[in-house]
Specification:
- The chain is 38% helix and 33% strand.
- The protein contains four helices and eight strands; from the N terminus they run βααβββββββαα.
- The strands form two sheets. Strands 1-2-3-4 form a four-stranded antiparallel beta sheet, covered by helices on one side.
- Helix 1 (15-42) runs antiparallel to helix 2 (46-63).
- It starts with a strand and ends with a helix.
Length: 172
């Protein structure tokens, strides 16, 4: 039976993100206003095109600050995609769940060493989980993400028997 499950999570905006958005918006609006005023007083109509371009650039840049992640479990593979501004999708990593070494709530009680860490969280670390898995290109990878119950069940279903037994013994 096929194991297919997906989840889309939106990254929460931090105060720094909001300040960047406001600063960028104000700067581009002021630049567009300056171009419009210069166009009116100097009679250079090309400045109107530049002003409209600045406003369009602002909309494009600010919408690009909206980031989300999609977790896709298909049989024994999990793909994590980063979605930028609902217009661009970038594959962050694909892991083979049958090569998983550990899984649990993040942060773990002990520091787990890894060669690479992939952060794909909403920004709320209290609901985050980690997955430690061997990857053919990156070595030992620690994936930090916010799976819902359905994704967690789909992931655990594909673990090797030794890890499944250890997780059941530990009550996770």
């Amino acid at each position: 039976m096929d194991n297919i499950c997906e989840q889309l999570v939106e990254k929460k905006k931090t105060t720094a993100d909001i300040v960047k958005m406001i600063t960028l918006s104000l700067g581009l609006i002021l630049g567009a206003a300056a171009c419009m005023l210069a166009s009116m007083y100097l009679g250079i109509t090309f400045l109107v095109v530049i002003a409209v371009g600045l406003l369009a650039l602002g909309v494009w840049l600010v919408s690009g600050m909206n980031v989300g992640y999609e977790y896709i479990v298909t049989n024994n593979e999990m793909d994590i995609d980063k979605i930028i501004g609902r217009r661009k999708r970038k594959r962050m990593i694909t892991v083979d769940l049958s090569k998983a070494d550990d899984f649990g709530k993040y942060p773990p009680e002990k520091n787990i060493e890894s060669d690479t860490t992939v952060h794909a969280t909403t920004g709320l670390e209290k609901n985050a989980h980690y997955l430690l898995v061997q990857h053919k290109d990156y070595g030992k990878v620690k994936v930090i993400f916010n799976p819902n119950e359905k994704i967690r069940e789909a992931i655990v279903q594909e673990f090797p028997n030794s890890l499944s037994a250890r997780l059941k013994h530990n009550g996770e």
